[in-house]
Amino acid sequence: MSGLVLTPLQPALSSISCPSSSEDDPYDPTITDQNSAEIVGSRVFGNRQRCLPDKAPYHPLDVHTRLQNHPTLESMMKLNYCVLFTDYVQSCKYESCRFLVATRNIKADEIIIDAEEALAVGPKQATHPVCLNCYRRVDGTYLCPRCQWPLCSEVCGQLENGLHQKFECEVLASQNAHPTKEELEQDDCRLYDCITPLRIVLDNHSHPDRSRLWLGLEDHRLYRQKVGIWHVDHQTVVDPVRIKWQLGESINEEELQRACGILEVNAFEVCDDEKTISARAVYSHACLMAHDCVPNTACSVNPATQRMTVRAAVDIPAGQMITTSYTFTLDGTLRRRSHLKETKFFDCCCPRCCDPTELGSHLSSLACPRCSGRNYTVPEDPLNPASYWKCQGEKCGNRIGSSQVNQLLSCLQRKADELNYDDFQGLEIFIETWSSSILHPNHSLLIGIKYYLCHFYGNAPGFLLKEMSLRFLIRKMKLCEELLNIARILEPGASNFHCSLLKEFELAENELAERVTTTEDEEEEENDFETIHDE
């Protein structure tokens, strides 16, 4: 699928976690006894999902909800096969959660959410300087003629309907608020942290009719205050906007903090394949998708309109929740759960996180030192970061403490971070050194390197498909096959990762077939020549 790639980052609350709703949730339906529609969900107890009597992971509850007079029914009907559902979560600090569920069987590649317009789009946190209209990197050579913020070119500077011109340009110009030359030289210019929250606040001021859409989005205010991110946002967003830019009279602290929370909880990271675009966006329907570390959808954005499309990555049966992943699916369980806890404020307990082998993918498995790599060591309790790790070998059972595992992984991560990706031989040596003897060949520390080499071989200068030796062509195909086996488990169906690997494999396979055919033709011609010569 062409267009921008979205990395969705959205918290949720059950084992298949769900975005929670605010106290005054305008989406909450009114329960009545007529004109009802069956809804599907899962009850949650503590941090783990408990299956209902028939053991089905998504069991229909005896709940019927009247949707006829629902305030967002019309917009919900634009979601071809999904219906909004509100369920109460037991033994959890959040009172309710909302998620999308299939109301009929959905075929793989069918569109679930079609070209949804973003509620808000803007720069990411701690980003390098970017154009405030197209979000591509800028060097400060062209400045907006009104507010003096850098833009990529005169094209973006003269847009009449650009988001920069629509929202913050006039406000920033009136306060002479723009980054200094020194600030623009920083790789993480923190003034850009202010732009997207400011757009949300200004949108609420200028379009009060849209406030209902924002009201339904969670900001986890109390939790953010507890863990300290509230104070970081105060320093990087609230103080610059209200004090440095002198907008305190028209914008209060509470609405800026709420905007920051909405973004941290609900925003999708938007980037393109070449990583030239750096932005984040909030989509009112897409952000209702539940989280799962093995998602059943694939998301993309049209680069021209920034509208988001969600497709079914696999067949989704009626009654199953529509899911996406709000973390990097190719990270191991420890890193995924840590990232989700720190940035999205929830503990994921999906089936993959609960499985020591990560559904057989072994992205976290280590080679057992006692078995000399013949067996692999996995956590006894993958949901507990302090869990002991135990060898899976029947006659071994060797256990390793979590501190020893963390020390090993930290050491290897530092080595991986120091790799020079222009040196393909160094990458191959790293894989050979640590694969099997220390790490499972599928370990997440090796996956990124292997994925890079899949694209390096066949696309880099000196290693183009037509130029590569047979050795490297076969190596490319082997790497693609290894990663495709992982993709079938963790990103099944038409995911971006899966499709990219399949494309590279097919290109290499076709090239190999051409070479074999050419070799056979040459041998046949040589045999014909020898036959004629003998005659």
From TrEMBL:
InterPro entries: SET_dom (IPR001214), SET_dom_sf (IPR046341), SET_SmydA-8 (IPR053010). PANTHER family: SET AND MYND DOMAIN CONTAINING, ARTHROPOD-SPECIFIC, MEMBER 2, SET AND MYND DOMAIN CONTAINING, ARTHROPOD-SPECIFIC, MEMBER 4, ISOFORM A. Residues 79-327 form the SET domain. GO terms for molecular function: N-methyltransferase activity; protein methyltransferase activity; S-adenosylmethionine-dependent methyltransferase activity. It comes from the Eukaryota. This is SET domain-containing protein. Residues 519-529 have a biased composition (Acidic residues). Residues 515-535 are annotated as: Disordered.
